[in-house]
TrEMBL record:
The keyword Metal-binding applies. Pfam families: ADH_zinc_N. It comes from the Eukaryota. This is Alcohol dehydrogenase-like C-terminal domain-containing protein. GO terms for molecular function: S-(hydroxymethyl)glutathione dehydrogenase [NAD(P)+] activity; zinc ion binding. One of its GO terms (cellular component) is cytosol. PANTHER family: ALCOHOL DEHYDROGENASE (PTHR43880), ALCOHOL DEHYDROGENASE-LIKE 6 (PTHR43880:SF5).
Length: 226
């Protein structure tokens, strides 16, 4: 890269952030004034929210089981936070009510194929588009009533956001350097290597978005970025 970007930010750019901006901008091509629902508000979901906000979405509903995600989500553009634990109503029904007929775009950012079905059900008839980003650890098959597709909804996926790394990533880094996109807030913790188990705990209990681990310097092998 011809310009100077902090090494840590290059790392964050390497996957989660550009993937999700790409999912919002290139894959879904979110249009101004549209209604968006995002399932899962980790780094992936928050970056999709940022992409949707920058595209001028009028409503961005974030769904997450962890109440702690609410505040950060609002900072990334989420307009309505929904915790499935707070309602007995099926989530697609809640989304349908909040959006007045279903979302124009739904993003699955958890890695749960059951949620892919929920996302598809939360879209509107006619043109509702579901983009699946999560990578499931179990049950890879997606099941859905054929009528959802027959009624004009589309299901697609996004891996790495559809960017051409060599020609397009530098322009994203430039946007970050000009403070047009928010990235620093995705790094919530910085720990030395000896505390790596704490980092895993933080990741598992959901208090952490991205944690940077500092490796001890070994003589003769200077760390990248130094
Ligand atoms: N497609 C790609 O290019 C790409 C790139 C990076 C990561 N991923 C995948 O995206 C997914 C998300 O990554 P992340 O780093 O944001 O993960 P994360 O664990 O930080 O975030 C997931 C969020 O989903 C929430 N969640 C879990 N189960 C839920 C449920 N049933 N209902 C509502 N919310 C629920 C969690 O509370 C958490 O906030 C992972 O599967 C990851 O492997 C895909």
């Amino acid at each position: 890269m011809e310009f100077s970007c902090p090494f840590l930010m290059e790392m964050v750019f390497s996957i989660p952030h550009h993937t999700c901006l790409g999912a919002a901008w290139k894959v879904a091509n979110i249009s101004e004034g549209s209604k968006v629902v995002i399932f899962g508000l980790g780094t992936v979901g928050l970056s999709v929210a940022q992409g949707a906000k920058m595209r001028g979405a009028s409503q961005i509903i974030g769904v997450d089981m962890m109440q702690e995600k609410c505040e950060k989500a609002k900072a990334f553009g989420v307009t309505d936070f929904l915790n499935p634990k707070d309602t007995d109503e099926p989530i697609p029904q809640v989304i349908n009510r909040l959006t007045g007929g279903g979302a124009d775009y739904a993003f699955e950012c958890i890695g749960d194929t059951g949620m892919v079905t929920t996302a598809l059900q939360s879209c509107c008839d006619g043109w509702g588009l579901t983009v699946t980003l999560g990578v499931p650890k179990q049950k890879p098959e997606v099941t859905a009533h054929f009528g959802l597709l027959l009624n004009g909804r589309t299901l697609t996926g996004s891996l790495f956001g559809g960017w051409k790394p060599k020609s397009e990533i530098p322009s994203l880094v430039e946007m970050y350097l000009k403070k047009e996109i928010k990235l620093d807030d995705l790094i919530t913790h910085t720990l030395p290597f000896k505390d790596i188990n704490t980092a895993f705990d933080l990741m598992k209990n959901g208090t952490c978005l991205r944690c940077v681990i500092h490796m001890p310097e070994i003589e003769g092998f200077p760390m990248a970025g130094n």
